[in-house]
Recover the amino acids of this structure.
């Protein structure tokens, strides 16, 4: 992690050293989600085209260099630099996890998936929560949903999921709706 290259560029905004440090720290934290992460290039800008009275919008883009590929987080915008930075790093973390998950061996079949029910959905934000059989709340992101996808889930739906410990508690890394088997009709 010591040899991780972090490059920060800004256009239309002057960054304080504290802001640069926060971006560097965020980039270094990404390295724990992808130990083969080679470089992080961060671009911060404030577009100069806005109508009178419109708030200033900060735009943060991140390019992640991994062996044989570049992952790009495009244009995360917000009215505060902090929010734009947080959105960009959250999207970058998800992309890294998804990218490196392709190279992991598949989870063992049988017993690896638990069953739960969807309790809360936040469609605009792209995440939700499910309740396990023992009553715990588990976070999941739209990128973790297989099958019908995030849009196919409803509150109360039974789902199978694989749970891991995330940054802020338990999270489901794989979620799939459980279909009930229909018995053949009696003749």
């Amino acid at each position: 992690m010591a040899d991780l290259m972090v490059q920060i560029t800004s256009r239309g905004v002057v960054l304080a050293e504290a802001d640069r440090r926060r971006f560097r720290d965020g980039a270094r934290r990404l390295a724990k989600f992808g130990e083969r992460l080679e470089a992080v290039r961060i671009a911060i800008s404030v577009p100069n085209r806005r109508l009178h009275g419109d708030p200033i919008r900060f735009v943060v883009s991140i390019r992640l260099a991994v062996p044989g590929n570049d992952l790009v987080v495009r244009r995360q915008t917000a009215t505060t630099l902090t929010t734009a930075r947080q959105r960009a790093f959250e999207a970058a973390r998800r992309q890294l996890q998804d990218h490196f998950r392709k190279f992991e061996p598949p989870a063992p079949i049988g017993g690896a998936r638990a069953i739960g029910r969807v309790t809360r959905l936040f469609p605009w934000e792209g995440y939700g929560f499910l309740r396990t059989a023992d009553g715990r709340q588990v976070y999941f992101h739209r990128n973790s949903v297989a099958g019908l996808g995030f849009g196919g889930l409803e509150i109360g739906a039974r789902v199978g999921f694989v749970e891991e410990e995330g940054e802020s508690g338990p999270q489901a890394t794989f979620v799939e709706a459980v279909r009930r088997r229909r018995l053949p009709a009696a003749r």
Notes: The longest strand covers residues 69-78. The chain has two domains: 5-101, 114-177.
